[in-house]
Amino acid sequence: MPTDTRLAGPALHLADSLWQDAAIKFGNTAGAVLGFLGLLLAVFFAAGRATGRFSRPLAVALMLGPAAVLLLVGLVVPLLRTVYLSFYDSDAAKFVGGRNYGWAATSSQIHDVLLNTLLWLVVAPVAATGLGLLLALLVDRMRGQAIYKSLIFMPMAVSLVAASLIFKLLYESRGAGQNQVGLLSQIAVTLGWDDPPNWILSQPLNNFLLMSAMVWVQTGFAMVVLSAAIKAIPDEITEAARLDGASGARLFLHITIPMIRTTLVVVLTTIMIITLKAFDIVRTMTGGNFGTQVLANEMYSQSFEQYNTGRGSALAVILFLAVAPLVVYNIALLRKERATR
Amino acid sequence: MSAEPTLDKAAAPGPGPGGAARPDLPPAKAVRRAFSSPLASALVIAVTVLWTIPTVGLLVTSLRPKGDVASTGWWEAFVHPDFELENYRSVLFDNTFGTSGGLMPYLVNSAAIAIPATVFPLVLAAMAAYVLAWVRFKGSDTLFFVVFALQVVPLQMSLIPLLRLFSSGAHLGSVTVIPALNLQDSYLPVWLTHTMFALPLAIFLLHNFIAQLPRDLMEAAVVDGASHFKIFRSIVLPLSAPALASFAIFQFLWVWNDLLVALTFAGGKPTVAPITSRLAQLSGSNGSRWELLSAGAFLSMIVPLAVFFALQRYFVRGLLAGSVKG
């Protein structure tokens, strides 16, 4: 069968070169890592011999220098440059003042994007933290808790792209009369809903379906951190409250919640920060279509698909202004909590 | 989040039975007892099942023959079991998605990106953290604060300028500060970007740890005439191993799972792009080829899942120390 050999031929050849390709890439990578470490060792060896008053500044320059230069080139300068670019047109050629921000504030398309982003910012973190708290309270008493914790925590290790594909399969929809291949549609059919909608296209429901993927990923994180915080409540405090007659729900509301309040807010703000910056889920599941666009993905689209540097930069600045206070608050809480421990 | 356990000298009093000699439950469990009932257990089990089913669905789909995947739901596989590994072979090596080769080159790229992008920031941050903590100089506190404050900058703020820098260099007026580098088909932009973005958090976390190393040990080494390089190599690095391990795991998973840096600096080319970026593209262009998409997605999950289950202890420790990048 000549067709078969012709098909097998290139495929076999391709597989061969695939292994070769892999070997070359791993070779380059190992070379880069070993070269980097070798260079450092050589520099350390040479500079370590220096004595006298130069040894200290030399150590500072060589050990702090690389990180400082990378931070300057990779974060500080780009930060200023993006702010600068946000006042220029799409090719960064002409100064346009606040026109890009004006566009962001007035265009109805961006209104919807900001509204969606706000919805994400509230719903996903609150849902993940709330569920995580409930699980943290319940799971520690159970036999075999490690298994439950591991399984709920597992999505945290998976990329948001993989999580999106997992949920996309869950929401897959076929026309009425066909076999459903998505579990959600099948459940709907089993429950007597003959023609369930195409979930991903159903506005505004689809926004919440996308958020579910984020909640799926973040709940385990909330559970693990909150569970550690609950375990760290000193026994004496709980005991004293119990001797005073508190129990059950009252103990929870008046002792547990106040004692872990800081951790609770840290978890909530951490998930908010992640949610604001993440564009992976929207990009993978809908590409921002069907009314699901969010700020982080719009910024990517404007910058690298529409090639509008000005608008992309303006959206990046808006994102920065939204994220920065959250991060500052989050870090302040984290420090406060550490200080009290 | 609580302090990192390894740093926490007065470890949190666990609810274990070793505390006060009392016949009843340790008090910390009293709260949870209120929530314990068959109903509570059932709820946890229900959530666990709910949380696991989507992944099981993906795995089962990836193991079913193409025809079955297209015509029936994955749960049918439990009624009519028919499993094979053909999807994995096909998605790795064949021209199944129309363009050159399968996902194999992308999987290789993921590893080739993630390993250096973990080693570089780890070493650079450890050195910087040591200097900022122990080799004090004029302005070192200010510098530490600046690094610390850089954590507020989202990745998105740097993408456009960095992309321009890598493609056309940096110029001040007519003076070329950094020449345009021909970095097409090179991992370097991706490695560098990940390294730059890991530094603020890495320096901050490692500084917290390294600053708490015993002062006597450092001073004894200085008295013995050891250089800062020697102290860093033979005292700081070995003693910070737990903190380094925690951060390394986080950074590795972060880079492996990243889409934003990958898409911006590596695009979708098999020469440099990692698997996340290819999967995101395929989700849009080949969204109904579930037998292949599921196998591809699962392939991308194998490495992080292995790291996660093997090193869960370090993972949790890092999490509690606050190593969560947005």
Secondary structure layout plus pairing:
The complex is a heterodimer of chains A (341) and B (326).
Chain A: H1 2-48, H2 55-85, H3 99-106, H4 108-139, H5 145-153, H6 160-170, H7 183-190, H8 205-231, H9 235-243, H10 248-259, H11 261-277, H12 280-285, H13 295-304, H14 309-340
Helix pairs in contact in A: 2-14, 3-14, 4-8, 4-11, 5-8, 6-8, 8-11, 11-14, 13-14
Chain B: H1 28-34, H2 38-63, H3 66-71, H4 86-93, H5 104-134, H6 140-149, H7 156-168, E1 170-172, E2 175-178, H8 188-210, H9 215-223, H10 228-239, H11 241-257, H12 260-266, H13 275-285, H14 290-310, H15 312-320
Antiparallel strand pairs in B: 1-2
What would you say this structure looks like, in words?
- Chain A is built from 14 helices and no strands.
- By secondary structure, chain A is mostly helical.
- Chain A has 2 domains: 2-85, no CATH class; 99-340, MetI-like fold, CATH 1.10.3720.10.
- The longest helix of chain A has 47 residues, at 2-48.
- Residues 1-15 of chain A have low confidence and may be disordered.
- Chain B has 15 helices and 2 strands.
- Chain B folds into 2 domains: 28-93, no CATH class; 104-320, Orthogonal Bundle (MetI-like fold), CATH 1.10.3720.
- At the A-B interface, helix 1, helix 2, helix 4, helix 5 and helix 6 of A face helix 1, helix 2, helix 3, helix 5 and helix 6 of B.
